[in-house]
Each structure stands twice: as C-alpha cells, then as structure tokens.
Amino acid sequence: MTRAVSLRGLSKTYARAATAVDRFSLDIAPGEFLVLLGPSGCGKSTVLRMIAGLEDITEGELLLDGEYANDVPPRERGMAMVFQSFALYPNLTNRHNIGFPLKVQYPHEDHSARIEATARMLGIDDTLDSYPNQLSGGERQRVAMGRAISRRPSVFLMDEPLSNLDAKLRNHLRAEIAQLTDELGVTTIYVTHDQAEAMSLGDRVAVMRAGVLQQVSTPRETYAVPANVFVAAFIGTPRINLLQAVVHAPLAERMCIDLGRQRLPLPEPLSHDLQLLRIQQGRPVVVGLRPEAARIAPPSHARPGEVPLTGIVEHTEYQGHEALVHLNTGSRRAVVPDLESARPGPGPGSRAPGRLGRIKERAGALAKPRSSAADGPEAGAPDAHTPERATIRAGDLVLRTGPDTRLRTGAQVPLLVDLGQLYVFDHRGRRICPAPTEIPGLYE
Ligand SMILES: Nc1ncnc2c1ncn2[C@@H]1O[C@H](COP(=O)(O)OP(=O)(O)OP(=O)(O)O)[C@@H](O)[C@H]1O
Ligand SMILES: [Mg+2]
Q1: Most buried pick, 56, 140, 253, 368, via CB within 10 A?
Q2: What is the 3-state composition of the chain as percent helix, strand, coil, each rounded to the nearest 5?
Q3: Max CA-CA distance within the chain?
Q4: Where is the stretch described as Disordered (predicted)?
C-alpha cells in the first residue's frame, strides 16, 4: 500500500526561536519519490518529522490520502523512517534488528520468511546472524533500511540516510535505494543537502531555503529553469557563474548586458525572452552562466545565438574526463547568501517568503590587484586573504572544456557565450530570463 501525502501551509515555530518551517505546501502523489533539498538548518528534518508525527504542527494541515492527519499518532500513520545515524540495537542480531518492528506489532507470529526476503532484497542475507558491530557502515545502513522495509510501510521517510558513508558507498547505496523504492512503489520522502543525490534520486525535488519552499519540479526542470538565483546556485557542480550586470537598452542602439569591463551584445532580432529584459534598463541584475554555457573559441567560430567575450586564464583544474578553466572577465561576482550556512538567525524580515536576500557585491579579480580566496564567491569571508592563497587568483567565470585543453595562465582567450543558455535574475533574485511562466507578482 502507498499513500498520498499533502502539506497545506505547514509551519513550525519552536519556542523562543525563529520559524523553522514557514507555510510549506506540497502534494506528494502515491508512489512518488520526493526529495527535500536544502542547506543545513533550512528546515528539511522538521518537515519530515511533522509528517512522521514526531513534531507538532504549529500551523497548517497534513493530509494523508486526503484526510486530515495532524493528530494521528505516529504509529498509526503507517510510515517508516530511516535516519542518518543507524540506530540499530547493538545487542540484537541483524535478523532481530530487521524483525523488531514486526515483533512489536505482531508478537505471536513467525516473521522469519519476511525478514529473510527483506534481507535478500538488500543483499545482506548472509549477515543475518551477525551483530551490528560486525558490519561495515554500508551493511549497517542496509539493516536499518531492512528494518524500515520489513514493516511494509505506506510511506518511507529518509533523513540523510547516506551521509555517514564514504562517497563510493554512498553512490552504490543511492542506486540501490532508487531501485528498491521503485520495486516497492512506496511513497518516499527523502531529505538531503547533497544536490547530486537529490538530482539522481528524485521524481521531483523540493528546494528549501530558510524554512521556505523555493521550487518543486523534476530534477531536469530544477536545473534548466530554476525559479530564482538561490535554486540556480544550489543545483549543479561546478556551481553556476553568477555575475553582477546592468541591462543597457538605448532606443536607437542594440541592447547589451554590461558586465563591468565587458559587454554582452544582444543580437537583433531579439528572442522574446531577451526582449523582456528591456524593462530592466539601467537596473542591476544578475547574469547566470552554467559552466557549459560558454566555450573557448574565436568570434569567427560563432554559431547563431553565440556572442563574444574575452577572458584571462587564471588556472585550470584537470578532472580526468574534462577540465575546468577559471577565467577572469573583469566582471563582479554576485553572492547568494544562505547557500552553505545555516539560515540566518531570527530577525524581522529574515523570513519573508519569496525574499531571496540581498545580492552582495564582491569585487572582481581584475578590479583588485590581489584576489581573495580561490574557492568560490560564496566561500569564506569577503576578503579572506591568506598568504598561501594570494598567489592563486580567482576567476569570475568557470567553464568546462575538454580534458586535453592546454592553456597558459595569464593568456587572454576568446570566448563564445551561448545566449540560449543565459539566465538573468532581477535584483530580488527572481528569474526573469528565460521568462517565468508564472504570472508576474504571483510569488511576491
Ligand atoms: N527542538 C528545536 N528547538 C529549537 N529550534 C530547533 C529545534 N529543532 C530544530 N530547530 C531549528 O529549526 C531550524 C531547522 O532545523 P532542521 O533540523 O529542520 O534543519 P535541517 O534542514 O534538517 O538541517 P540539517 O541539514 O543540518 O539536518 C534550525 O534553525 C534549527 O536550529
Ligand atoms: Mg536535518
């Protein structure tokens, strides 16, 4: 059995604390795999715990198969939860750990067949008579999962179940979870702060920031049409390049996007989405370019929709299957608050829905003789100079290139930017190009 889970304006406020979850609404279909994604402290676990009944709902409604369920006791919700910490009973064998919920529910029945079937499904049937301390981390997490599955729940709630495992095992178990939940067809709500995990697992991904739901969409849509600059920056590795810019739309001349030292010309005839930028004339905007949205090539190689820019090579990261080139275009990077850190503390205005925070200014490396840290605009303090890092100059644009690209640091290279892959966000962080499909002002 599987069930629909609906959240209607769900909020959670802890005593003497800021609102942890703010008017969260979402409909999860029976059998759907929904991922709750967001940085630490954004309220993911709180949402999950309210669904499980482990946390009171301050405001709003939880519906299970359309029925009001705020007051249904946890054990009557038919849900099973898997946590980050394995929480196995150390003095019980794996067999008894997996069978524990069954024994509590039906103490006089023989559950061996179901335990063994579950263990086979998880590939741990040869460890049933061992104890948790005789298992590897991955095996222990599979036992924890077995314990959740054996109850045949109608909803699976998983709270960062893989984050204690090393990267290789995490990838392996990630694939297993996808396969398993698919086979079981049980509604699954999976919490993670790892965007790669979210993208590879979810039928849909719900991105949260500071207690507020930002966007719910398929992984593909989340990457391709992020609703705002926060979602754009949270999804994708390497991170999208975000540059401060101003739209220039003189009546008699071509429109262009001013990046500071250089301008991106917008060729006529303008696409519908780019035409809409005209109303931003003179206003600060943020331009988003994913690392695959530009390539190193001379203007003579431009395909339709590509416009030239130049960059100075800062350094190249060899990745095996590709290389990442850090370039300096003299632009100023835009910084999105909250991406990695816990959300800001309580304070008036900090929780207004739809508010994406200020886009702070950071000086571009060309404008500064010595650049700050090399590890990205969002990392560290604005002027975190360290003697080691002072020699590595941070670029403002990271591009993917082939693994065999050889570029000399300091060389000036021609670039072609694909306007079809250009994002523009307004001063509040909302995507304005490609044009949003929502009615303007709807998410004020
Ligand atoms: N019992 C509590 N009392 C007061 N504040 C709490 C309590 N539990 C959580 N919070 C606060 O609510 C906010 C959301 O916490 P939550 O655990 O849901 O975040 P999270 O997204 O799961 O973070 P993480 O990725 O670190 O697990 C945080 O600011 C946290 O400090
Ligand atoms: Mg959590």
Answers
A1: 140
A2: 25, 30, 45
A3: 85
A4: 338-357, 362-394
Any atom of ligand 1 within 6 Å of the Cβ of 214 = no
Asked if 293 and 417 touch (Cβ cutoff 8 Å), the reply is: yes
The percentage of the chain sitting over the pLDDT mark of 90, rounded to a whole number, equals 62
For residue 46, the ligand 1 atom closest to its alpha carbon is 18
Of 38-52, 194-208, 385-399, the range with the lowest mean pLDDT is 385-399
Q: Compute the distance between CA of residue 152 and CA of residue 118 in angstroms, rounded to an integer.
A: 10
- 129 contact partners, CB below 8 Å, separation of at least 6: 93, 94, 95
Q: What is the three-class DSSP state of 332?
A: strand
* Closest residue to atom 6 of ligand 1, CA basis: 14
287 close to 396: Cβ distance less than 8 angstroms:
no
Going through 225-273 in order, the beta strands assigned E by DSSP cover 241-248, 256-258, 263-265
Residues 98, 115: Cα–Cα separation, whole Å: 6
Model confidence pLDDT, tens digit, residues 293-345: 999 999 999 999 999 999 999 999 999 999 999 999 999 999 898 887 543 44
Phi, psi of 310 (to 5 degrees): -125, 155
pLDDT of the residue at 28: 98
From 12, 36, 37, 46, the mutation candidate for ligand 1 (largest count of ligand atoms within 8 A of CB) is 46
Q: Does residue 35 contact residue 205 with C-beta atoms inside 8 Å?
A: yes
Q: Is the CB of 20 under 6 A from ligand 1?
A: yes
